[in-house]
Specification:
Largest sheet: 4 strands, mixed
Structural class: alpha+beta
Distance between the termini: 38 Å
Order of helices and strands: EEHEHHEHEEH
Mean pLDDT: 76
Strand content: 15-25%
Low-confidence stretches: 176-180, 198-206
Strand order of the largest sheet: 3-4-6-5
Helix content: 25-40%
Radius of gyration: 20 Å
């Protein structure tokens, strides 16, 4: 779906609704964009189960819903969230590969990725994919991890929400073994910083 609309002072805004990978590959043959913002699902729960009302408004397909509560319909959620609305990012064995393909296909001066330490993609893999594209900085915030029962013991009482920012301007990749060692060092530095965040603490200035 493509919609064009104009806002003051007359800029043309294009709204597009394709698969993110397909869009990145299509735009890669065009002029480089300024910013790409990525917000992939963190876990096994598709966004469609939370944003099903917005999906129905955008699609305006008036999906059939059961008038009586039956198994799997008590929340009145459109049923395609389990099939058509699922993402590779909802599967542990696929999420990292999908992210790598996506970020490798993007042509942008700045790439921002919002993610969490509770995510399917291992933090080290996520960082590795970013440091290979440019200069990386991170903004982060620690939170108490959500639990259905606050009385139940958890070995992971907190998680960290963060945004990785990659700047590609003036980035000159270093070839060979030297690059591998340098990238590993950058990844480890960010791992230590993100892993040290505490609930309520302010992000480190970069």
């Amino acid at each position: 779906m493509n919609n064009d609309m104009r806002v003051d002072p007359g800029w043309l805004i294009e709204l597009i609704q394709p698969d993110a990978q397909a869009l990145a590959e299509r735009l890669s043959g065009e002029e480089e964009v300024d910013i790409a913002y990525l917000d992939p699902p963190y876990n096994q729960h598709p966004y469609g189960s939370n944003y099903h009302v917005l999906n129905s408004i955008v699609l305006w397909d008036k999906p059939p819903l059961s008038k009586q509560i039956t198994r799997g319909t008590k929340a009145a959620i459109r049923l395609d969230w389990r099939t058509e609305r699922r993402s590779a990012y909802n599967y542990r064995e696929e999420a990292g590969k999908a992210y790598r393909r996506l970020i490798d296909a993007i042509r942008a001066r700045h790439i921002l990725t919002s993610y969490s330490t509770d995510g399917m993609i291992p933090l080290e893999d996520l960082l590795q994919s970013n440091v290979e594209r440019g200069h990386v900085s991170a903004e982060m915030q620690g939170y108490k991890r959500y639990r259905v029962s606050s009385q139940r013991f958890s070995q992971k009482p907190m998680n960290v929400e963060f945004v990785l920012a990659v700047e590609q301007e003036d980035f000159d990749p270093i070839p060979g073994d030297e690059a591998v060692g340098l990238r590993k060092g950058v990844v480890q530095d960010h791992l230590l910083v993100i892993g040290s965040r505490k609930p309520g603490s302010r992000p480190k200035e970069n």
